[in-house]
Amino acid sequence: GDARVRGQTGVLAERRGSYPFIDCRLLNNTTLSGEIGTKKKVKRLLSFQRYFHASRLLRGIVPQASLYLLDEDYLGQARHMLSKVGMWDFDIFLFDRLTNGNSLVTLLCHLFNVHGLIHHFQLDMVTLHRFLVMVQEDYHSQNPYHNAVHAADVTQAMHCYLREPKLANFLTPLDIMLGLLAAAAHDVDHPGVNQPFLIKTKHHLASLYQNVSVLENHHWRSTIGMLRESRLLAHLPKEVTQDIEQQLGSLILATDINRQNEFLIRLKSHLDNQDLRLEDAQDRHFMLQIALKCADICNPCRLWELSKQWSERVCEEFYRQGDLEQKFELDISPLCNQQKDTIPSIQIGFMTYIVEPLFERWAQFTGDTPLSENMLNHLRRNKAKWRSLLHKQHSSNRSSDHSGQVTGSQEQTLNEEETP
């Protein structure tokens, strides 16, 4: 009973937009200011404005302010990219630029159409667009990593995984819609700091969710709030919408990295015993959880040029948290000390202990498909790249210790990106 009340409280509070991100005194001097929060609350209340903007877009009337950015050439290139949305080398950064920062909305509208979800669930296009704009706007563009582009990247990866024959042959329209929605909203309203930070600063979200999957619970409850506010699924029977809300929660909560071993052990057991029955909704849901977990941490399995950008972005977010902790005399969290935790060392550890075990099991599940082999090949090459860069850093540091400074040639060496 208490858990149910807490859950309902979480949805209601987050629907009202009553939560600032970090307790106050810590962020008074940062980009996550109260002023930004207030503006977002006001925008959230202007649902008529959202509706008007969305309906103009869907009638093909582009807002005047965007005309010079969204010319036909850009739109044509974006449409061409969407025709290859199932390719693993899809460049989400380029797509985001071509859509003027609307990669998540544009991608989801396309994928809902491609998978026949609009027709199957009798969704209203204006309402769908309005909901997706709400989701996209609730991501924080000032976060280097946990922003709407990351959500779009995870969604594109999820689309690729949903097409894997081992899974695709059993998926229902509901499974596909849940997978895409969970991918799109899995980090919504992320504050750019991790759970331990929220706990040690006594943030109210940590208190609300009793220090358990704090961020993931917040992402889920925020998503439910937006679903209800948009009335996207209001025409469906109540028991169906309740089931969708619960399954979305189960999927989003699975992305909590603290539960990694729990899911790996269960997946290994299923694969070893060969007892996965994808005709069974429960087993399909479990594999959707695994697929979302893979999509969420697939950056090291992308092309080096894309993977490296994501690595730099996530480490920049870590370092910002570390700077904040140092400023307010808190213990600096692991991986957040820019002086000690280098990007290559962080990435090598992440790949070794988190990414490789999961993707090797995923490849075992899919049956070593071209996509799985491609991802593992990228993962191995990228790990070798980071090892090479780490070695160069160590060599440079030793030289620096002897000479007292890094020479220009050594600095150039650090920036080299030749394949080892």
CATH H-level superfamily title: 3'5'-cyclic nucleotide phosphodiesterase, catalytic domain
Per the principal axes of the C-alpha atoms, what is the gross shape? globular
Count of helical regions: 21
CATH class descriptor: Mainly Alpha
- Number of DSSP strand runs: 0
Q: Overall pLDDT, averaged?
A: 85
Quick overview:
This protein is mainly alpha-helical and 420 residues long. Helix content is 67%, strand content 0%.
Question: How would you describe this protein?
Answer:
It catalyses: 3',5'-cyclic AMP + H2O = AMP + H(+). This is Phosphodiesterase. Belongs to the cyclic nucleotide phosphodiesterase family. PDE7 subfamily. Pathway: Purine metabolism; 3',5'-cyclic AMP degradation; AMP from 3',5'-cyclic AMP: step 1/1. It is an enzyme of class 3 (hydrolase). With 420 residues, the chain is mainly alpha-helical. It has a single domain, classed as Catalytic domain of cyclic nucleotide phosphodiesterase 4b2b, CATH 1.10.1300. It is built from 21 helices and no strands. α3 packs across α8, α14 packs antiparallel against α15 and α20 runs antiparallel to α21.
